[in-house]
Amino acid sequence: MSFTKPERVINEGDTVILYITINNMHAIEVKSHTTNKHGQKVEYVHQTAYGALKVQSLIGKEYGTKIHLPKGYAFILQMNPELWTMSLPHRTQILYTPDISMILMQLEIQPSSVIIEAGTGSGSLSHYFLRAIYGKGHLYTFDFHESRVDQAREEFQKHGFGNFVTAQHRDVVSDGFTDDLNGKADAIFLDLPAPYKAIDHVVKALKPSGGRFCAFSPCIEQTQETCLQLEKYGFLEIHTIEILQSEHIVREKNIPVMDLSFVKQKREDTESKLPKRDEKRPQLPTRKILTTLNTPIQQGHTGYLTFATFLRI
Ligand SMILES: C[S@@+](CC[C@H](N)C(=O)[O-])C[C@H]1O[C@@H](n2cnc3c(N)ncnc32)[C@H](O)[C@@H]1O
C-alpha cells in the first residue's frame, strides 16, 4: 500500500479509512481473516455504529467507493498521514497536523533529509517525516519503550515506509543516539519529558553546517530549560512558538461614513455647524461592508515548539 502516491484499487493488506463522518473514522487493515480473543482464526468483520462490515468485501473496490452498511453508509478512502493521525491506535499522547506542519517547515525537511526523532511514541509525526523524505532520505526514530518501537516498526513496514526508517529501542537521554549518526543529521526532533537532558547528544549528531533542531514541550518550564541548554551549547536562532487556532467569522457590518465635506468650508462656518453641547448629534450615514470578526482566543494549547540552528563556526 502507499501513503505517498494515489492508488486506484484496494488490495489485500492495505490499511484503509472507513469514513462515516469527520468524527467517526476507522482505520482498517484489509484482510479476510483475523484472530479472535480465543486465538481462533475467524472471518474479519468490522463493527461500526451503522452495523457490521465484512472486510474482505473491500478487496478490488476503488478508493472513494460508497459502502452500504446495514444501517447507513460510509466511504472507503486511501490512507495518508493526516488520516492516520486522526485514526491511529494511541499508545501515547500524539502530535497533530497544525504543530506538525510547522515542525516540517521550520526543520526545513527535504526529500534527502536525514532526520532523528525521539520518542517515537505512536508514530503520528514519524509518518509525516517519512512522506516528506520518501525515496531519498532516512528517518532514525528512538524510543525507550520497547513494545512501542516494535509496533511502530511494524506499522511503518505495512505502510510502505520500511526502507526509509530505522526504529530503535534506546534511551536517548542516558545513551544518546547511535555513533554512526555523529555529524549526519540535517534535523533532530525531540518529544521527551526532559529534552534539555539530551542536548549534548543532539550537538554530536547534528550536521555542523547548519543542522536544525526542534523540541516539543507542553510546559513552559521544560521549554525554558531547553532554551538555556541550547544557549549554553552555542545554538543560534533560538525561538519558541505556540500554534493556536483562531477563527475568523465573515460578516456584513454597518459602519458610519464620515462627512468630510466641511473641510472645504471656512473654519467659522464649520464651527457653527458643530452641534452645541446639549444638541442631539446628527445621525451619520452608514455603509454596509463585508468584514471579519475574531473570536476570543480559543483554548487549544498543545505545547511549545522551540527551534534552533546548530552551526559550528
Ligand atoms: C509523547 S510521546 C511521543 C509522541 C510522538 N511524537 C507522536 O506524534 O506519536 C513521548 C515518547 O517518548 C518516549 N521517551 C521518553 N523518554 C525517553 C528517553 N529518554 N529515550 C527515548 N524515548 C523516551 C516515551 O516512551 C514516549 O513513547
From TrEMBL:
Region forming the signal peptide: none
Keywords: Methyltransferase, Nucleus, S-adenosyl-L-methionine, Transferase, tRNA processing
tRNA (adenine(58)-N(1))-methyltransferase catalytic subunit TRM61 C-terminal domain mapped to chain residues: 72-309
Biological-process GO terms, alphabetical: tRNA methylation
Enzyme class: transferase
Record-level GO cellular component terms: nucleus; tRNA (m1A) methyltransferase complex
Presence of the UniProt keyword Nucleus in the record: yes
EC number annotated for this UniProt entry: 2.1.1.220
SUPFAM superfamilies linked: S-adenosyl-L-methionine-dependent methyltransferases
Record has Transferase as a keyword: yes
GO molecular function, one term: tRNA (adenine(58)-N1)-methyltransferase activity
Subcellular location: Nucleus
UniProt cross-references to InterPro entries, sorted A to Z: SAM-dependent_MTases_sf, TRM61_C, tRNA_MeTrfase_Gcd14
Catalytic activity: an adenosine in mRNA + S-adenosyl-L-methionine = an N(1)-methyladenosine in mRNA + S-adenosyl-L-homocysteine + H(+)
Superkingdom assignment: Eukaryota
Binding site for S-adenosyl-L-methionine: 122-125, 143, 171, 191
Subcellular location, principal: nucleus
Designated name of the protein: tRNA (adenine(58)-N(1))-methyltransferase
